[in-house]
Design a protein that fits this description.
Elements lengths: L7 H39 L4 H14 L3 E4 L4 E3 L2 H12 L1
Antiparallel strand pairs: 1-2
Length: about 90
């Protein structure tokens, strides 16, 4: 073997080691990214109350538990959900 011939075994070991190291680095960076993304979503989206949604929920719960007109001209009313279930059950008997 001459002094200027490449060492195939050493090159293969360095290449294999580099490929494994690159794979590990990519996996670690991916895990770090997903962890940071989850933290940002938690901080910016999930932990912030959404007032419009809360207001809509409150309005719908109010409608489910109150009496009122749907169409006064047609004589259509809404009743609390519990009372409506009682009326339907009584109708079925």
């Amino acid at each position: 073997m001459r002094y200027d011939d490449p060492n195939v075994a050493a090159s293969a070991v360095v290449g294999l080691f580099s490929a494994i190291l690159l794979f590990v680095i990519i996996v670690m960076l991916q895990a770090l990214f997903f962890r940071a993304e989850r933290g940002e979503l938690e901080k910016k989206v999930y932990s912030q109350p959404y007032q419009a949604l809360q207001q809509l929920d409150a309005n719908q719960i109010g409608l489910l538990n109150s009496y009122g007109w749907v169409s006064e001209a047609e004589g259509v009313v809404h009743v609390p959900i519990d009372r409506a279930m009682e009326l339907i059950a009584a109708e079925a008997e």
